[in-house]
Each structure stands twice: as C-alpha cells, then as structure tokens.
Specification:
The complex is a heterodimer of chains A (388) and B (672). Chain A has one domain. Helix content of chain A is 77%, strand content 0%. Chain A contains 15 helices and no strands. In chain A, helix 4 packs parallel to helix 8. Chain B is an alpha+beta fold and 672 residues long. Among the domains of chain B are: 90 residues, no CATH class; 105 residues, TATA-Binding Protein (2-Layer Sandwich), CATH 3.30.310; 134 residues, no CATH class; 127 residues, no CATH class. In chain B, helix 11 crosses helix 12. Chain B is elongated, with a radius of gyration of 41 Å. Chain B starts with 13 loop residues before the first helix and ends in a 9-residue tail after the last helix. The N terminus and C terminus of chain B are likely disordered. The chains are: A mainly alpha (388), B alpha+beta (672). Chains A and B meet through helix 13 and helix 14 of A and helix 2, helix 6, strand 8, strand 11 and strand 24 of B.
C-alpha cells in the first residue's frame, strides 16, 4: 500500500496506546467503570478504605488489561453476564441451586467448576489430537474449549463468592482462601496465560503440554472434591480476615501459573531437541521461540511472585506480628524466589540458553509445587490455611 | 551483577582479585542456590523446639552433631548469617561496579560514534535519502520522537549524527532491584537479633532456661526497655497486666522490659456454628507515665495497635488461671467418698495415694470442645459440643508423667452416656480414651461398685470356685479344683492390673501358636464369667430380679463396664478426676515487636518490585543515524542496539528500518 503525506502525518501521532483505542475499547472501559461503580454503591458499607482501593485498582487494571490484550474484554463480559445471571437466579435463596435448572446444571458455582473440569480435560485431548495428527480444526476446538473452561472456572469462583454470602453474612468471603479455591484459580490463570502466548505466537501445539498440567490440577480438584468434600464453603479463620488476601493470593497464582507454564514448555523444548526434524518439529514453535516464551513466562512469574511475596510479608507483619518469621511457607517462597532468581541470572547475565534452562525450569516446577502444596501437606507452621 | 573475566593480565592487586571474586556471577548464583538449600533444611527440621524433643527424635549422638551445626536454629546460625552476608556483599560489589557505567549509559547519547563501529552492529542498514542531511535528520528525528525516543543531534564535520534512546529506565531497573535487595538486608539486620547474640557472646546477658516467676529471674536475663529492636510474646490473664515480654532464645528465653504497661481488661472469642473461631479480640489498656490518661484500645487479629514504635498483636489465647473444682475418685478403693480438690489452672496439687505420692499438674481448661460429626449422624447436625474439659498431668515421684484430658459432662456414644477420659504418656501420642459408663443416676458410682467387687479377692475367689465346680465339673477340695480356681483369680488380677493387652502378651509368650486363639478366647470367657458373676451379685444387691435373665440395658451396661475395666490398667492413674465446677478466666497472648527496620525493608521491597518490572517490561533501545551529504541528497547509516533480547528486537528493527527508509523517500512501499 502506498501512503500519502497525510497518512504519514497521522502515523506520526500513532504510537500511544490511548490513540489506538477504538470505540469498543472505550465502551469496555465505561462498562467496567459502571460495573465497579454499581459494586461500590451497593457494597461500600461493607468495605474498608483498602478494599475500596482494591476495587477501583482492579477495575483500572482490568480496563488496561483489556486494552492491551483484546480477548480479555470478551472474556470478562461473558463472565460478568453469566455471573450476574447466576446471582439473579439465586436471589436470596441458596437452595435454588437445587431447584433452578440453569443453576443446577450450568452456573451454580459447583456446576460451573465441574464444567470447567470437564472442558479442560476435553481441551487437553483436543490439543493432543491436534498435535498428533496435525489437525488444525482440532487445535481450534482445543482453543475454544480452553476459553470456555476458563470462563466457567471464573464464573464458578464469582458465583461461589456470592454463595458464601448467601450461606451467612459472616461466612462470606472472596474465594481465594483455601487449596480448593486457589486450585481453580491456578487452572484458570495458567490457561489464560497460555491463551495469550498461543495468540501471540500463533501456535497451538504448545497447548497439549500446558493443558496437561492444567488437567493434572483438575485431577487433584476432583479428588479433593469427592474424597475430601473440599468444595464446601468454609468460613474464614481470623488470620485470613483481611483485605490483604484479595491481592496477595491472586498475585501469587499468576506466579505459580507462569512457572507451571514455563516448566511445561521446558518439557516441550527437551522433546523437540531430542526429536528434531519430525512431525513434532513441524508443528511446534522453533526451539528459539520456545526458549523465548519460557523466559517470558518465568520473567512474568518472577515479577508477580516478587510482588506476592512482598505483599505476603506486609500481611504477615499485620497478622503474625513480623514481616519475616522463617515460617515454612515464607521460607519456601524465598526458596522459589531464589531458584528463579538464579535462573534469570544464568540466562540474562551468563547468557545460558536452551537445554540446561529447560531442565532447570522443570525442576523449578517441583520446587514451586512443594512450596504451594508440599508445605501444606508435610510441614506445619503459621500458614496452615490450605491443609490436605 | 555481571561477570567480567579478564584473562592473561598478570599481577593483579589483591583488591582487584577480591572484587572480581565477590562481584562474580558464579559466586552470586552459588550463594543463591546455597541459601535455598540451607533454607530447605530449616523447614524440614522443625526449628526452635525444646531440646528434649530433638534428643528423643535423633538420639544423643546426632543431637550433638546437629546442635554444633546450629541446625535447630538455622536462620540464626553464624554460617547462615555469613552466607547472607556474602550475598549482600556480592550484590553490593556488583552494584558498585556496574552503577557508574549504567548511569553513564543512560545519560550519554554517544554522539561521537564512528560509522565503522555502527556498521559492525548486528542491526544496521544503509540507504539514500532524497532530502538533504538537515531535512533528513529532522524528518527522521520527528518520527523517532513520535515513537517515544529521546533524540539528540550533533553536527560533525562532513556528517550529522542523530542518537536516540528509549526505555532507559529499564537500565535503572537493574539498579533499583539490586539496591533494593541491599536495603532489605540492611533493614532486616536492624530488626534482627545480632546485638543480642553479640551481648551473649560477650557474656553480658545469659539465657534463662528454667520455668520460674519473672520476679526470680536474674538481672543478666533481663533486657532494658530501650533495646533497639525485639520480638517477643506474653500471656496476660484478664484483669492482670505486664510490662515485659519473653524473647524465645534457643532452649530458653530472655525477659524484655517494656517502656509501658499493658493491662488486659477483657478477652473475647467468637465462634462460627462449627466451633471454628471467628474472632479473637482483646480490650487492652496502656499505662504509661507519659500519657495523660491510660489509653484504652481494642485489638484483634490483623488489627494491631502501634504505640511508641511498638506494635502489639493479638497472637493467641490461653487459660489465664481458671478456678476448678475436682472430685477425685479412687480407683484402688472405689467405695471411698471422692476427695474434693480446688485448684487453679497452671498450679500443682500434691496427692497421696496407695500407689505413692503424685503431683497433679492442672495444665489447661477448655470451655468448649466442638468436634465435627460424621456426615450420616442421625441427629443431622454437623458438629457437636462436648462441653468443658480439663487437661491434667499426673507426675509420679520418679518424675514420670501421664497426661489426661477429662470431659465434664457425659457424652453419648452409640446412644449410651459415658464420661470420657483420654490418656497419653507423651505429647507426641494421640489420646487413648477411657469410656466410663454412666449409670441411671448420672454418675459412675455403679461402675465403681462393680470395680470394688472385682477388686474384692474373697468374692472373686468364691465365684471362681463356684464356676470351676459348676461348669467344669471339678469337685471342691481336689487339687485340680484349687489350682484352677486360683489360676482364675490370678487371671482376673492380671486383667485388673494390666488390662487385656497384658493377657494377650502373656498368651503369646506361654502358649504355642496353634493353640493361642483358643486359649485366649477361653481366658476372656473366664474373665467375663467371673465379672458376670459379680455383676449378678451387684444386680441382686440393687434388688433387680434376674431370674428370667438380665435386661438388654443391663447387659449393655455390663459390656461397657468390662471394656472400661479392661483399660484401667494401662490408664495408669490411681484416681479418676472428675471436673465438677469451674470459673473460667482467660488469658490473651500478645506478640509485641519493635521493628525500626520495617519501613526500610518496605522501601527496599518497593525498589525491588519496581526494579523487576522495569527490567522485564521496559525495553531499552538505542539508535543512531549517521547522515552525510551525497549527490542524491543524503546517505543514511542506521544502526540499533538493545540490551539483551536481541531476538525479539528483530521485528521492531525491521519496522523501524522500513519506516525510516520510507520517510527518506527511499522505498515506495511500507510494511506494517
């Protein structure tokens, strides 16, 4: 295309994000602001000033996130519509989850979460099928299923939030308080991170690997639900009754999700290196790209994990009387942090690439897994909120 | 941190070698990993437990080994602190060595760059512009400014140089994050207990290991109120006050005086219906001469009070010396009236029993004991409150102690009421529960009457002789009869003294394997037979007509009583202590800290977070345009560089190249 001087003149002013925003972007921002405004006017009497700050902070964050990554807008709007529908159907009666058709089979929190579980497993199969036979259609199905599963998981959490208040006012809390709830969040965040990279690198073959770790989390969730009845909403112990929970836990799980994603790409990297030139190589991104995504995921995870750990320390100062007590959970957070700090130094400063770092990322997942699950299972300490 | 290896340079000064070692990436990564591994040890091995626990767990040899390595207080161990110190030093050296060049890099546009070096760049290109150099530079410069670059231009003889850069804050990210780490460590050091360790090492202070009243603690174990930082705790009963806290140190503690007095006016716990605590709240009053009037505040978990740089946290709660009234029923002389004991939780009572003298330690009292019920409990309830309980320790003269937990009110088990008493010999065990059947009057008197009969050797012998004669057809007076009936009496005695386990053990030792089961069941039949005979006598004494058999209810009571008797041996107490009345007094546990380094640590944290985001999400780019005049207009030499991530820069460079070429009129099409 040839350009006129006028076009050029316009192009001179192009770069800032603001000026690239279209009508839909502004509508999106308006909707989010209206939504948080309504939430504020409805519930401000229940919030302290920090929570009001968190509400509007996350609204602004969501707007910018939606601008930066456009599919987030559709995702959030669908989640909002479904969640509001469920809340509307519930009214003030928790028992409607048994009597109302839509709630019972679709969007009551437990049903939505079960849908999420099923859809993630189906998505995993679809991605593997796509990778195995090279079917583009199957890959697209995988993507659609992953999006749907993420929507259902998020709806499940949103509705669960409301349900906790329907049980009793003093039981109500944001559903990030125990292992069951954070596992759902882990699955959804990992899936969204993956979808972001999938779009950006225009490659669906990585899905088979990443969705496998999500399916493992789903397996755990199912076991936890049916064996331990973990899906029942429990009230909060005093130490967790704090606005800090709303920011500390999600920040942490962006970290965990990104580390898990990086480890799965590490596996993909090693396989690809072992079997170059095959069908796998034709369908996967190049080794350099995998290495690059792995780095990006770990950098993102590390940044959020740093924030989460700092927030955790600040919360600990308020709840346990000291910002650092060498509690097992704190210590393991430090271990995870040191581990990825070493990884990043090796890559950025020593210029390591490829195989050793892929192995290290996989080992990192086990370190992370221990921090996130093992500490709760095997070690006792102050942070015993998600016990198995 | 960066690595600069300069090989082949002879005779470097010691400082240089040292600096290179400290600033080396290899050292930094080794330290990161070493600290991670050391931290793992600290989480796997529970820290700061009483030393006795470790001795029991690892044996005396390994205990000494671990102790000498300070593995029980790893995060305070000198070698761990040295590791941390090295990380701090390594980070500082790195910052020191890199900061000048980074700052220079951020400020200098390098306008004097040579065309030769630009051509050597990985990303470079050359083209002709249709405009003269001046116009070219101004057009391209405008575009680059539009793209967010900072632009500088310099006129050289024969050419113009345009240098631009973007995202230089990203370079600041390195400084912020690494200086942040140093700042965090300094803040942490201010709040750490190094001064205490130093004072201890010099012998200025001594750790107290005995459990004695504060008034008796030596001055050497008491720290003055002006300590710079500390973190300790104290339990204050309702209505009492304290002006000190305890700092736990290895296997003992120190007393830290406070510059004010904390009084606990009231402590409140709220529960959810499940018995899970919902809130802990204390109303405290601060007494300080500097205050016009005492300061009264409520504190709760997550809502501490900050007073004069001291933060007062709601940390725990405990019994604050509840008054309890106990009825002590002798299990050796069951018919005696129970002894009345009035005591206070946290104190000891001396007891004399037929088995020797004991110290009764009244350890703890709980007003509620809420436990979950199984899902299909017929009551449909999810939880049950087992009512008040008391925890006791019965310490024999030789120092051995058993711990008991006794519930005050009868608890229904399978539809029948029992008084529950749990026993364990060490805190590591689970309680084993004795179920004492409750009679129609609501007490255990009937059980004790049956027990008294079982302990009455003459009556047991009479029944044994009678049963030997009746059931085995052995005539009285024969030696076999006497031997057999005496064996029965002995068997019951063993059962009473040592419980059913002793009988199983005995059978395993003395009877060949193939006959064991048979022997054991006959032993049990004999025991049940004798106790059954006694029970019939008891029923007769109570005036119950048993001519047409024993009622189902009485039968069940008997089974329960036999079960309870079978456990009395291992229960190991000469007494059953029944909680009869109480006056609940609670104590609130406070953690009080003075952490002047906290804000420094937070500052460091903010620097670290900003730094990390700057480093990862702001991209540092530098561009140069060397424009010289030629016959068509101008010749443009374009080169670009980025810090790290060369791969990702390819696309951006391609875009820039096309864009700038287009603006020079050098190309007719553009690539978006």
């Amino acid at each position: 295309m040839s350009a006129t001087q006028e076009y050029l003149q316009n192009e001179f002013d192009k770069p800032s994000l603001f000026k690239r925003l279209g009508a839909y972007d502004w509508l999106w921002a308006l909707l989010v602001l209206i939504g948080s405004g309504v939430a504020y006017s409805e519930y401000s009497s229940l919030m302290d000033s920090y929570e009001v700050g968190i509400l509007f902070g996350s609204a602004i964050g969501l707007i910018i996130f939606g601008w930066y990554w456009k599919p987030m807008r559709h995702f959030s709007l669908v989640v909002a519509v479904l969640s509001l529908a469920a809340i509307g159907l519930y009214g003030d009666e928790l028992t409607r989850s048994e009597t109302n058709f839509f709630l019972k089979y679709l969007i009551a929190s437990q049903s939505a979460i079960m849908w999420m579980n099923a859809l993630f497993v189906m998505a995993t199969l679809a991605y593997w099928f796509a990778l195995a036979i090279g079917s583009e259609f199957s890959g697209k199905v995988g993507t659609a299923l992953t999006w749907t599963a993420s929507v259902m998981g998020t709806v499940g959490l949103m509705v669960r939030w409301r349900e906790s208040y329907l049980i009793s006012h003093d039981v109500g809390h944001i559903p990030v308080s125990n292992l069951y709830e954070v596992f759902i969040m882990f699955a959804v965040i990992t899936a969204l991170l993956y979808l972001h990279y999938e779009r950006r690198y225009n490659n669906r073959a990585m899905g088979a690997f990443v969705l496998t770790v999500i399916s493992a989390a789903v397996g755990f969730l199912l076991w936890y639900t049916f064996e331990r009845g973990a899906h029942e909403i429990q009230p909060l112990v005093p130490a967790l009754q704090s606005y800090w929970m709303k920011i500390h836990v999600p920040a942490n799980f962006v970290g965990y999700g990104a580390f898990a994603l990086a480890a799965m790409l590490g596996i993909a990297y090693l396989l690809l290196e072992r079997f170059p030139g095959g069908k796998l190589a034709a369908r996967m991104p190049s080794l350099e790209q995998l290495d690059d995504i792995m780095y990006k995921a770990i950098a993102l995870g590390f940044a959020f994990f740093t924030v989460a750990t700092v927030l955790g320390a600040m919360w600990a100062a308020e709840a346990w009387g000291g910002y650092w007590s060498w509690d097992p959970k704190e210590t393991w957070a430090l271990i995870v942090w040191l581990n990825y700090a070493a990884w990043l130094h090796l890559r950025l400063t020593k210029g390591w690439r490829g195989k050793p770092l892929a192995w290290w990322a996989i080992v990192g997942l086990f370190v992370t897994l221990f921090a996130f699950l093992g500490v709760n299972m095997f070690l006792s300490g102050l942070h015993s909120y998600g016990q198995l | 941190m960066s690595e600069t290896i300069k090989r082949g340079k002879p005779r470097r000064g010691l400082t240089v070698v040292l600096m290179e070692f400290l600033g080396s990436m290899n050292l930094a990564i080794t330290l990161l990993v070493a600290l991670a591994i050391a931290s793992v040890i600290g989480t796997v091995l529970q820290q700061n437990q009483p030393y006795n626990n470790y001795v029991m767990k690892f044996g005396p040899f390994w205990f000494e080994v671990f102790k000498s390595l300070s593995l029980f207080d790893i995060y305070g161990a000198p070698w761990f602190l040295i590791l941390l110190g090295f990380l701090l030093l390594s980070t500082s050296v790195c910052v020191y060595r890199n900061a000048p060049s980074i700052i220079k890099d951020m400020r200098h546009f390098r306008l004097d760059v040579q065309d030769k070096s630009l051509r050597g760049f990985h990303h470079s290109d050359e083209w002709h512009s249709i405009y003269d150099p001046k116009k070219s530079v101004s057009e391209l410069g405008k575009r680059l400014s539009g793209l967010g670059y900072r632009v500088r231009v310099k006129q050289h003889p024969g050419h113009m140089t345009l240098a631009a850069m973007k995202g230089s804050v990203s370079r600041l990210g390195y400084l912020l994050s690494h200086v942040g780490i140093v700042v965090i460590c300094i803040g942490g050091l201010l709040d750490g207990n190094l001064p205490l360790k130093w004072a201890e090492w010099r012998g200025d202070i001594a750790i107290e290991t005995r459990d004695i009243p504060v008034s008796e603690i030596a001055d050497k174990s008491i720290l003055s109120p002006d300590s710079s930082s500390f973190r300790g705790s104290v339990n204050i009963p309702e209505g009492s006050s304290a002006n000190f806290i305890f700092l736990g140190m290895r296997d003992g503690y120190l007393v830290q005086k406070l510059p004010f007095t904390v009084e606990l006016e009231d402590f409140r716990i709220e529960h959810y219906p499940s018995g899970m605590p919902k809130s802990f709240e204390s109303t405290i009053v601060i007494h300080d001469d500097e205050l016009d009037e005492p300061l009264k505040k409520d504190i709760a978990v997550n809502h501490p009070l900050i007073y004069k740089g001291h933060a007062i946290y709601q940390a725990s709660f405990a019994d604050g010396g509840s008054k309890v009234a106990l009825g002590a029923w002798s299990l050796d002389t069951p018919l005696r009236e129970p002894l009345q004991i009035d005591g206070t939780i946290g104190t000891d009572v001396k007891l004399n029993t037929p088995r020797g003298s004991y110290t009764l330690e009244l350890t703890d009292f709980k007003r509620f004991n809420i436990f979950p019920l199984s899902q299909n409990d017929p009551s449909g309830k999810k939880f049950q409150n087992y009512g008040p309980s008391i925890v006791l320790k019965l310490r024999a003269a030789n120092g051995e102690a058993r711990e008991y937990v006794n519930y005050m009110t009868p608890i229904m088990v399978d539809g029948r009421p029992f008084l529950l008493s749990g026993m364990r010999t060490s805190p590591a065990e689970e309680y084993r529960f004795l179920h004492l059947p409750v009679d129609k009057e609501g007490g255990i008197e009937r059980f004790l009457r049956l027990l008294a009969l079982a302990q009455d050797e003459e009556r047991v012998r009479a029944i044994a002789q009678h049963q030997a004669e009746l059931e085995l057809g052995m005539p009285r007076g024969e030696e076999a009869h006497t031997r057999f009936s005496e064996a029965m009496v002995g068997l019951l005695q063993t059962f009473l003294d040592e419980g059913i386990d002793a009988i199983v053990d005995h059978t395993e030792k003395s009877v060949p394997e193939e006959k064991r089961e048979e022997a054991l069941s006959s032993f049990i039949r004999i025991i049940q037979g004798i106790l059954g005979g006694l029970y019939l006598e008891l029923l007769a004494e109570e005036g119950v007509d048993t001519s047409s058999g024993v009622s189902a209810e009485d039968g069940r009571y008997f089974d329960d009583a036999v079960n309870a008797i079978s456990l009395l041996g291992p229960y190991g107490s000469p007494l059953y202590l029944k909680l009869e009345d109480f006056q609940h007094i609670e104590a609130s546990g406070f953690q009080i800290t003075k952490a002047p380094g906290q804000n420094i640590v937070y500052l460091g944290c903010v620097m670290l977070m900003l730094g990390v985001f700057f480093m990862f999400y702001l991209h540092y780019r530098r561009l140069w345009l060397l424009v010289s005049e030629d016959e068509k207009g101008a010749k443009v030499l374009f080169a670009a560089t980025t810090h790290r991530e060369r791969g990702n820069f390819d696309n951006e460079f391609e875009f820039l190249r096309q864009e700038l070429r287009y603006l020079s009129g050098a190309a007719l099409s553009r690539i978006e």
